[in-house]
Design goal:
The protein has 4 helices and 4 strands, in the order αβαββααβ. It has a 4-stranded antiparallel β-sheet. A hairpin with a 2-residue loop joins β2 and β3. The N terminus is likely disordered.
Length: about 190
């Protein structure tokens, strides 16, 4: 009887330890997701502010130059200030430096499937913990819905002068043909653990 009681007590302690570890892991993931969302919000807010100001000042061609020159600077600044890597990616990139890696591509394809099944694009997100070259990372992605102002540069009917500016700045551009509500791409975050 004494042996059976010790086993039960050991099993109970092991179960409590396991549940505590799982709870701590869930809390850690939630914290990393919040940290990622905060970085995305900062990047989106700064980019939108610059784009809206330039759009009002000089139209879509001026806004395009913000994407070409200022967006990489803003992206780097937010990444440095948040001590993580945040950027934008898409299945149809304009800037080739935003080409998705294998995991990002899989998530973007998954987002497209979820959208086709009726999911709200603005609610699509995904997180994962993975090893990359021996380093453990937390990865997070949040879909970017195409909004009406985006269609001037990313839609189906792009002004001729704007198309020429896009071709000059981005000779390998693929980021056109979108409709309102489409998945323009996603914000992606990588945090070393």
């Amino acid at each position: 009887m004494f042996t059976k009681m010790r086993k039960t007590k050991s099993s109970t302690l092991l179960l409590v330890a396991l549940l505590t570890t799982q709870a701590n892991a869930s809390e850690r993931i939630a914290s990393l997701e919040n940290q990622s969302r905060d970085a995305i919000k900062s990047l989106a807010t700064e980019l939108k502010s610059e784009l809206v100001a330039k759009m009002k000042e000089g139209g879509p061609i001026a806004a395009l130059k913000v994407c070409n020159v200022k967006a990489p600077v803003i992206t780097s600044s937010v990444s440095l200030s948040k001590n993580l890597e945040v950027k934008r990616t898409s299945l149809k990139t304009r800037n080739q430096s935003n080409t998705p890696d294998k995991w990002e591509r899989e998530i973007l394809v998954s987002f497209e499937k979820q959208k086709l099944a009726g999911a709200n694009v603005s609610e699509l997100d995904q997180s994962s913990i993975m090893n990359i070259n021996g380093q453990k990372y937390f990865r997070y992605m949040k879909a970017i819905p195409t909004q009406k102002p985006c269609l001037a540069c990313h839609g189906k009917n792009i002004d001729k002068a704007l198309r020429e500016s896009i071709a000059e700045l981005y000779p390998n551009d693929q980021a056109t043909g979108f409709d309102h509500g489409d998945i323009r791409g996603a914000f992606t975050v990588k945090i070393p653990l």
